[in-house]
Design goal:
alpha+beta; 2 domains; six-stranded mixed sheet; 8 helices; about 25% strand; nucleotide metabolism; dITP/XTP pyrophosphatase; ITPase-like_fam; nucleotide-binding; ribonucleoside triphosphate phosphatase activity
């Protein structure tokens, strides 16, 4: 027994747990929890110690989050190999290929949709052909019980023109169009650089600021030219922006967005990254995005912040019934 304290906390959920003898679930919120804890206690019960976890719930919005928190402690402390899988709004508790428990939403699930495939895990299609980006999303959504594909798995799909005037419009175009064509759940993103003194430009035109087919070097040169008469760094404030849209047939699309604040430097710095990274000074650090390691960038960037927001709301969105 380690007595190690575990904690999960975001804007919507907050749990504290400890591996203990004769534990239980204690809630500090008014609304009752709707997980079937009697069934779970039977599954997790240790003959010697009973239900071996004490958990205090300070905030709660997601059954998936709470059940995953319990499973995390059990896997770490009891050597279990439990996995929580979302399927059509239901939660499946699986261990070594064996289904131990099914948690259904109050409104139930569509029977035909639930049993339409023999695969236990659902698939999320990322609207990109970039394998590096796909690898990042695969690592994230594997923990949520999803297999991840990208557009390279569907070579016959047409390219979706990004004709929107906003990041959300472009991300919606990609996600919702591909979801309709494939019948699958699709995640799309649109990202770019917004410079305040330029009224938010280059914005959705970031990749083609210097013209269609422009190189990163040409886009950077164009940006420096546009800011040539802005002599104070404080006046060169900017944000990298990302909008993520998840679309699924019969559901209202899920939209999250995030900004990474900083400034535009007077000259490029650093050899890493791509796009405007050599010119973008991160916050007040004086360090360009191109001077960060990939790990450092992925822990704080606009895309990282957007994904964090997505993970906070995705389980509750997925559990909502179709329209």
């Amino acid at each position: 027994m380690t007595n190690k304290i575990y904690e999960y906390k975001d804007d919507q959920d907050w749990y504290v747990g400890v591996w203990d003898v004769y534990g239980g679930i204690y809630s500090l919120i008014k609304d009752p929890l709707d997980l079937e804890f009697m069934d779970l206690a039977r599954i997790f019960r240790d003959e010697e110690n009973g239900f071996p976890i004490t958990i205090t719930v300070m905030r709660w919005s997601s059954n998936f989050r709470l059940l995953s928190f319990i499973v995390e402690i059990l896997n770490a402390e009891a050597g279990r190999n439990l996995e929580v899988i979302q399927r059509q709004g239901a939660l499946l508790l699986v261990e070594n290929g064996q289904l131990l428990h099914v948690e259904l939403p109050k409104e139930g699930v569509d029977v035909e949709a639930f049993f339409e495939t023999s695969k236990v895990r659902e698939t999320l299609l990322i609207a990109t052909r970039n394998e590096g980006k796909t690898k990042e999303f695969r690592a994230i959504f594997d923990k949520l019980g999803y297999d991840v594909e990208n557009l390279n798995d569907y070579p016959d799909l047409p390219e979706v023109a990004e004709t929107g005037m906003t990041f959300e419009e472009n991300a919606r175009l990609k996600a919702e169009t591909i979801s309709k064509l494939t019948g699958k759940m699709v995640l799309a993103d649109d990202s770019g650089l917004k410079v305040d003194v330029l009224g938010g430009l280059p914005g959705v035109w970031s990749a083609r600021f210097a013209g269609v087919g422009a190189t990163d070097q040409e886009n950077n040169a164009k940006l420096l030219h546009e800011l040539a008469m802005v002599f104070e760094l404080k006046d060169r404030s900017a944000q990298f922006h990302t909008t993520l849209v998840v679309a699924s047939p019969g559901k209202e699309s899920l939209v999250v967005e995030a900004d990474w604040p900083g400034y535009i430097n007077f000259e490029p710095k650093g050899e890493n990254g791509f796009g405007y990274d050599p010119l973008f000074l991160v916050g007040e650090t004086g360090k360009s995005s191109a001077e960060l390691t990939l790990e450092e960038k992925n822990s704080q960037s606009h895309r990282a912040l957007a994904v964090k927001k997505l993970l906070e709301v995705f389980p509750s969105w997925q559990s909502k019934p179709s329209l």
